[in-house]
Structure formats: C-alpha cells, structure tokens
Design goal:
2 copies of one chain form a homodimer. The first copy, chain A, is α+β, with helices and mostly antiparallel strands. Chain A folds into 2 domains: about 160 residues, CofE-like (60s Ribosomal Protein L30, Chain: A, 2-Layer Sandwich), CATH 3.30.1330.100; about 60 residues, CofE-like domain (CofE-like fold, Alpha-Beta Complex). In chain A, about 25% of the residues lie in helices and about 25% in strands. Chain A contains 6 helices and 12 strands. The radius of gyration of chain A is 18 Å and the shape is globular. The interface between A and B is large, with 75 and 75 residues. Strand 1 of chain A pairs antiparallel with strand 1 of chain B.
Chain lengths: ~240, ~240
Amino acid sequence: MSRMEIFGIEGIGEIHAGDDLAALIHEASSSSTDTMLIDGDVLVVTQKIVSKAEDRLVAIDPTDPLSHKPLVERESVRILRRRGDLIISETEHGFICANAGIDLSNVESGWAALLPVDSDRSARRIRDGLRHRFNVDVAVIISDTFGRPWRRGVTDVAIGCAGVAGIVDLRGTPDALGREMHVTEVAIVDELAAAAELVMGKSTNIPVAVIRGADPTWLRDGSVADEIVRSPSDDLFR
Amino acid sequence: MSRMEIFGIEGIGEIHAGDDLAALIHEASSSSTDTMLIDGDVLVVTQKIVSKAEDRLVAIDPTDPLSHKPLVERESVRILRRRGDLIISETEHGFICANAGIDLSNVESGWAALLPVDSDRSARRIRDGLRHRFNVDVAVIISDTFGRPWRRGVTDVAIGCAGVAGIVDLRGTPDALGREMHVTEVAIVDELAAAAELVMGKSTNIPVAVIRGADPTWLRDGSVADEIVRSPSDDLFR
C-alpha cells in the first residue's frame, strides 16, 4: 500500500550569508533518530533560508513601508497587474507572483529577501552536498509561497528541484477502467511542496521538511525551470 | 514534532449511482488495521466517485470525441479561453478549469461525469455518515484535478470540504523573528488535496486517501465555496 510520511526538521537556527545548508540540514536532522535522513527522502527547503545563505538580502529603508517597491520593479520583466500596493509580475525566472517574490517576513527589519538566482542550481547544490559529503541520496525541492488567480489563499509551490521530476507524465497510461487517458501531466514537485508546507507553518522555525515514501520512479533528474515554467507562447493567460 | 502520514484506501471498487460512500469507505478502511479511520483524520475523496454516487453521469456519443463539448458549454457560466478543443471556463460553482470539470477518464465509454452540484454538501454528507453511523469524527475533502495558468502540469485541489478549514488565516501572527506578518492566508484545504494525490495516482484504484496528524486547530467548519472561491470583483484575472 502506498504510504508517505512528512515531518519537519527543527533546530536549524538563523541562516546567514555563506552558510553551508547541506551541513546544517544534515546536522539538524541527525540530532534525533526520528528525523535522520535516508536514501530516497525528498527534502523540501523554504526559499527564505536559501536566499539568506546565498546572500540575496538587499537593504531597504525600515521606516518606509514601500521602500521595497523599486526592488520589485527591478526584479520584474513584466508587470501583469497592479492594485494598490500589490504588484503581480513575472520574474526573470518566469515565475508569476506577487512582488516578484520579494519577501519581508522572517527577514530582519531593514532587509528584503530576493529569490535565489537559480533555484534548480540551489537545490542541486544541497543535494550534491548531502550526497558527496554525508553519503545520503535525497531529492531536494526549494519551495516558496505563491498566490493564484481565481482561488483565495496561498499555497507553497516548487521554485527549484534536483533529483526529483517536476512533472510526471501519465499521458497514455491506461486509467482504472483500462482506457487510454488523455492528458495527465501531474506537477508532483508542486504537490510535494504543498504537502511539506503542512508541517512547516509560517510562524514556526521549521524551514525544512522531509517527505518519506515518494514513488522511486519520481526520483530522476528534474528541473522547475525546464518542466514547470510555462512559456508565454504556450500560455493562455499572459 | 509535527509529523503527518498519508495513505490510500484500497478496495473501494466501482461506484454506482446511489451508492453509500460513507459505508463503502468505512468498510474498505476497516479491512486492515493499517488503514482504520480514527478521530481527527482528514479524508480526501476524489470527485469522480462522488459524481458517480450522486448520479452525475450523462450519456455522450462514444464514437464522437467532441460529443461532450455541448455539455461543457451548458455547464459553463463564462468562457475564459478557447484553444483548439480546449475550453477554459467558469462553472456555476465559480471554479475556473478546463472543460467545466467534465471528465471522461475513469468513466465508462459513452458517459461523461459532471462535477457534483454542491461539493461542500457532498463532503458534509460523507462526514455526517461516518460520524453518526460509524462513530468516527473525520474531516472530508472532495478533490479534483485542475490545471493552472503560468505553470505546467495539473495538481489536485479541493472542490468541497467539511470539518476542515478552507483557509487558515495567519495574518497578524508574528513570524519567527517576532515581527507582524502581512498576509498569509494559507489554503490548507488545497494543500491537503495536493498531498493526498501523491498516494492516489491517476491510473490506480485508490479514490480515497487519509491524512493523519493534521493540526487540530484546522478541524472546524469549512467550505470551499465560501472560503476558496474568489469573487470576480476581488479577482485581478477575470
């Protein structure tokens, strides 16, 4: 029977520029036998600590609530919508989100956190660090919290991945009644990011979660940039 | 430490109009001590079996691959986009999805499955059945598979819920650095639906999954129609 387990990794602490995330995650997860990483685990790491480790913090005026807005314009390649202070734009990565993914929560006052330059690469770096230096073969997803049109509320999605497929293509797989299916390209990397968020919460100190029991066929080279980001020409809503 | 478990319920079998889903789910889950339901579980039930039990099947011409298209028009209150055979439209529930949520996979040839009339009510009916007749207090989510703009691939989302919040409002909750957060209304009901899909798959016979270990504060009266569906006036993309 298919069964998965999701748990958070506690005790990672504040992250600073240059920190070695693979080492810190390995150390925190190894502090308890309950959370020790094993081959085949999928690690979901929030963008915030990746941006901090990669020194993607930019100084802003803490007395001006709109001081990050010029940054939003700079980090956007296309503005889709404006309403009041809210800007929905496309980043150079091809993500469409509020404020170009720039975040002020869980960042010290006077600083704004930009998205990582290349989150697939960030995921690969953590995965390679764990594999080569700590001898554990896990997949890594970098997650962020995005809104979406038509539905209220935010959900976590993947902005980068390594060692796990972005999309699992079930096109042509017979359905339970044996008929050929039409299109079912499941964005499992986004479903994994959403699942992880359920144990991380927003105001707790759990920036990393582990999903254990993922289908082994999902664990191949993957990329959010190549598989998930929809090209404008293929997009009906841009 | 926060820890969740997700597993599928097997052995539910083909569903027919009038079937008692609460009884069938209870019977299948009780067939093994590993899957027995307990208070506080969140049950995720795919739309397909709900539509079948509620007799939402409509006959179509099995020799004509476009014979469901008039149904799509009928079930839509607004067409947003057309490309080739694909119609993205708004249903009377306020969902925006491909082909008005009408599905031909996992349905016998010559039939199309419409969405339930009121999936919050469908969820409530299953929850009440399990509570009153089988004495187990679980939350219920009805899930369906939707595409989304800007990102490739489909993910499962909630189209109805009972006994679980649609949105958990973290506005004003201090973040990990003790500062007030701006807006973090998390659509946990969609994250739960996405998580459940990971153990259900598309071509296997697992129409129901259980999420165990949900935060007890999430388990209150909830509604997808009231909490998740964004009103057109509040929507920047309609």
